[in-house]
Amino acid sequence: MIEAIKPPWTGEWTLAQLSVHPNSRVQAVAQRLLGPPFNYLREDMFTGQLINRLCEFVQVLPGGRYDASRIQEGWNDWANCLEQVQGTFFIPSRAWTLGMEPRARLVRLGGPWQR
Hints:
Elements lengths: L14 H4 L5 H11 L14 H7 L3 E3 L3 E3 L5 H13 L8 H4 L9 E2 L4 E2 L1
Antiparallel strand pairs: 1-2, 3-4
């Protein structure tokens, strides 16, 4: 009996698992978060809400297959943000990292994303 693949947003995924996810876009972001400048953070900062946000665009099809062709706008915003700030990203707090700080926001001023 084959165990069913759980959807990524159940919160049971880790960055290491996502770095080999069948969807190449998920792989790319997970691998980026596992490398500098993000790898100095404990991996438990990238569980729960953040991983759910990274993966919620994946459409689960019958049989546990994933449709990589259907990408939601929210995911593109996340990926584009990471691409803009790559190499200059600064994480001031765990709450901000997880997107739980209501006063924190990313603003684009004609260049890289800034806090």
